[in-house]
Design brief:
A four-stranded antiparallel beta sheet has the order 1-2-4-3, covered by helices on one side. The two termini are 26 Å apart. Helices cover 39% and strands 18% of the residues. The chain contains three helices and four strands, in the order H-E-E-H-E-E-H. The longest helix has 18 residues, at 51-68. It has helices spanning 21-28, 51-68, 96-113, and strands at 35-37, 41-47, 73-77, 81-86. By secondary structure, it is an alpha+beta fold.
Length: 114
């Protein structure tokens, strides 16, 4: 499978089928610690040292989401924790775009650890 971080999200055409469970399992192998929920979304929890770092992360995810045209649900809770949930709402399930975004979100964390 091509490196997901190097791919660009492409809008799903009307009538596009969501990924099936076998496809989902192949994609999820490429994104560390993302959990599949009901074969309809993927989710990951992030924890930061403080509120400011959590907000910075959210803003960076927002920038990537705007560029890619694929927007996750972001939940900031307990002052330093962020839960990111990805799903392709237009097809009521998962698409390759969700895994591309997951890989790009993981890259944000990796870039900030350098």
């Amino acid at each position: 499978m091509e490196n997901l971080q190097s791919k660009k999200c492409i809008p799903c055409e009307k009538g596009t089928a969501p990924l099936d469970s076998k496809q989902i399992q192949e994609y999820v192998k490429n994104v560390k610690a993302w959990k599949v929920v009901d074969n309809k979304k993927i989710e990951k929890n992030f924890q930061f040292i403080d509120f400011r770092h959590a907000l910075t992360f959210i803003n960076e995810v927002g920038d990537v989401a705007e560029f890619e045209g694929h927007h996750p649900d972001l939940n900031l809770h307990n002052w330093n924790k962020v839960t990111v949930t990805l799903s392709t709402h237009s097809i009521k399930g998962l698409s390759e775009n969700d895994f591309i975004m997951a890989a790009k979100i993981d890259q944000i964390i990796q870039d900030n650890l350098k």
